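ok, trying the design again with the full structure, not the truncated one.
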């Protein structure tokens, strides 16, 4: 019988989770598997079929030929596994498989519950193979753990040890093209599996985008699939040193694969886009594309350094798009909360640019995948090495059409609330007054009521479609029961006027805070939501702290900074959650630097940036965050800035900062230090909320100082023009 027609049993291994996809792939190659086990497909077939798996499988890890089994007769409890493995290796004549001139290596896999030192056991297998050669031919082969000509894969089991020839040599995921690496890359066979699960070929996309391309694995695997490029075409295999290898058969399979690829290259290809915020990743992708043999197709691939916030307008029309990416989750980004913000930001971008198109996105945690807005999503759980990953696949939902709450709100008729009629009338009047402005200016977050009536000493703020109600603590002269009753009447009135249900209304009591108490958590609920302000999406927390993460009275200042930031280096001192820095970044700032003493607020700041598709902790340091006392930070540095924003607290102390800060007492020193860091034609904006504040004459004498408070207070704060004061400060210009 022709040796090529002789049937043998082969094991094809794969990563956990790929078994069914691999089984289908083998069937597409004309192979009929006999078993589908965890991490392994078994089939009986010809050598030609085994070679075709080596050449064409995009999903497999290894192709193994079992050649020797060693049965275990005694009980599991009293076993010397290493000695059994030695005896098993010794009991077979390995000179029938490879010559003593060849180099070899051992790969040992232990089945569950097998207890043995794997390094020592591997050494004993090697000893058994070497001693077998000495017994058979009087010569021994050499060990080469890096590039062996023969690899023996040994499975140590409870009842039997299996000795296999590894026909693949190196793992099949190593196609030979990945010369340049980035952090936490996905394995090539997993990338191919995701593309297969997403039905890339059936989608027939006109555009393929990887917005966080890393080292380019998805782009290259998609190119290989669409150009019918066999993954094994240019790599070496473990069967070359095998005495049963049929070189003529292998070369015919290789020639056929090369011909198929050349034919497919004549077909039309999609336009590929590979973006990354890291220029080194873009370069790595380009080099890997060339290493994969696709240099001639670079005209089909737009390789660009871009953040998520910097996508071009794709103008799809009737074109179909497919978006696939491996975001910098976990290992690459670090903070779980920032990761969630990243996925929210990615989802927002996909909804804006690619509604109804298909996508496949990797996540390290299922909670990250859950924020992606997809229709009928599917989830594929895989193992990328030892890291579990989740792949969320589906069609992208259209972005919801949102309008400011006040633009759709209409006054309602409701039964008068005894004891709160004046309050409900005032609240309704305020909302009617603000409605036109909020609709025209697209204002989503604003103050609806601020202690307008003495008996209802509360502030009512609107964040999107939710209300944040702060009760100013009543003086001790007021009966607590009477105050509580009045507050409950106010809440009933708020629900009646706004039409919002209890779950949309968040309540806090605001007493005068001293020292560190102002930063203490009020709750542990952490119900954070995303709100819109100008171009920015901002995370606000309506439950945990007195402050929500967004000072509404500084809205006009933030929007002014957004308008003026184009191409400028921007510094934000006492940055809090860095929303002013965020507006500057989205406005095209060349760089932003945010300084605050609180790591909690700086982490929140980074989430805001990531949510908007901006990169933090990036090598080029375009957007930097420093946990530092602003006085010390200003003194120690020397960089110059074109636009500086300072909004310090009225008073503060901290464990990190020895001493106290008082804005009236210390603003001269603060501003003088800050002006030393302001470029000659730059602008510094200074504001604070201390009602008794007076700008020191020394500042007015040293610099051009203009109070701009009226321009920085929106219509929703017109009743309370002392909510803050603000100045524009510049260096005197020579005339």
């Amino acid at each position: 019988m022709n040796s090529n027609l002789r049937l043998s049993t082969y094991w094809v291994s794969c990563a956990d989770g790929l078994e069914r996809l691999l089984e289908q792939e083998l069937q597409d190659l004309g192979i009929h598997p006999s078993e589908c086990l965890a991490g392994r497909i078994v089939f009986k077939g010809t050598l030609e079929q085994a070679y075709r798996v080596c050449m064409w499988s995009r999903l497999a890890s290894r192709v193994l030929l079992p050649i020797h089994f060693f049965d275990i007769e005694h009980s599991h409890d009293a076993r010397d596994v290493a000695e059994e493995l030695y005896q098993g290796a010794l009991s077979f004549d390995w000179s029938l498989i490879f010559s003593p001139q060849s180099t070899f290596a051992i790969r040992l896999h232990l089945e569950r519950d097998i207890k043995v030192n794997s390094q020592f056991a591997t050494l004993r297998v090697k000893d058994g193979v070497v001693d077998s050669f000495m017994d058979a031919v009087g010569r021994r082969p050499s060990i080469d753990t890096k590039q062996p000509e023969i690899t023996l894969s040994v499975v140590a089991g409870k009842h039997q040890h299996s000795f296999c020839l590894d026909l693949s040599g190196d793992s099949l995921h190593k196609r030979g093209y990945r010369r340049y690496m980035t952090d936490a890359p996905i394995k090539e066979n997993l990338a191919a599996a995701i593309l297969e699960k997403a039905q890339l070929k059936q989608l027939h996309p006109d555009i393929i985008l990887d917005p966080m391309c890393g080292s380019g694995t998805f782009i290259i695997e998609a190119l290989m699939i669409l150009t019918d490029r066999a993954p094994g075409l240019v790599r070496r295999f473990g069967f070359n040193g095998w005495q049963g290898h049929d070189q003529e058969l292998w070369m015919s399979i290789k020639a056929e694969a090369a011909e198929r690829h050349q034919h497919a290259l004549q077909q039309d290809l999609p336009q590929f886009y590979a973006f990354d915020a890291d220029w080194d990743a873009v370069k790595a992708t380009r080099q890997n594309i060339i290493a994969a043999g696709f240099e001639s197709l670079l005209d089909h691939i737009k390789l660009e350094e871009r953040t998520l916030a910097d996508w071009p307008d794709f103008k799809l029309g009737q074109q179909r798009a497919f978006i696939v990416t491996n975001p910098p989750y976990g290992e690459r980004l670090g903070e779980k909360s920032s990761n969630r913000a990243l996925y929210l930001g990615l989802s927002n971008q996909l909804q804006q640019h690619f509604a109804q198109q298909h996508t496949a996105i990797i996540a390290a945690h299922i909670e990250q995948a859950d924020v992606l807005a997809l229709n009928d999503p599917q989830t594929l759980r895989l193992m990328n090495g030892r890291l579990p990953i989740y792949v969320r696949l589906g069609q992208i939902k259209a972005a919801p059409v949102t309008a400011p709450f006040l633009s759709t709100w209409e006054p309602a008729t409701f039964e008068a609330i005894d004891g709160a009629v004046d309050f409900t009338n005032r609240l309704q009047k305020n909302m009617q007054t603000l409605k036109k402005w909020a609709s025209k200016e697209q204002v989503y977050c604003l103050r609806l009521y601020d202690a307008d009536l003495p008996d209802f000493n509360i502030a009512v703020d609107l964040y999107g479609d939710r209300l944040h109600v702060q009760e100013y603590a009543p003086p001790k002269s007021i009966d607590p029961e009477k105050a509580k009753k009045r507050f409950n009447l106010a809440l009933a009135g708020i629900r009646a006027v706004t039409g919002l249900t209890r779950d949309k209304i968040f309540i806090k009591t605001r007493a005068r805070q001293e020292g560190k108490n102002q930063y203490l958590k009020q709750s542990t609920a952490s119900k954070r939501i995303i709100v819109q302000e100008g171009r920015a999406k901002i995370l606000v927390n309506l439950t945990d702290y007195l402050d929500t993460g967004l000072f509404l009275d500084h809205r006009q200042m933030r929007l002014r900074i957004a308008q003026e930031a184009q191409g400028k280096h921007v510094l934000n001192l006492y940055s809090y959650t860095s929303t002013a820095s965020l507006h500057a970044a989205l406005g095209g700032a060349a760089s932003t630097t945010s300084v605050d003493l609180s790591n909690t607020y700086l982490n929140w700041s980074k989430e805001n940036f990531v949510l908007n598709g901006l990169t933090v902790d990036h090598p080029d340091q375009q957007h930097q965050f420093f946990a530092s006392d602003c006085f010390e930070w200003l003194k120690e540095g020397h960089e110059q800035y074109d636009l500086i924003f300072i909004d310090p607290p009225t008073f503060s102390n901290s464990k990190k900062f020895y001493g106290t800060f008082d804005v009236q007492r210390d603003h001269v020193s603060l501003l003088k230090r800050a002006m030393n860091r302001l470029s000659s034609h730059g602008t510094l904006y200074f504001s604070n909320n201390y009602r008794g504040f007076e700008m020191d004459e020394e500042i007015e004498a040293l610099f051009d100082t203009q109070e701009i408070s009226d321009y920085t207070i929106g219509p929703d704060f017109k009743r309370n023009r002392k909510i803050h004061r603000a100045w524009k400060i510049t260096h005197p210009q020579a005339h």
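Keeping the full-length input from now on. DSSP finds 20 helices and 30 strands in the chain.
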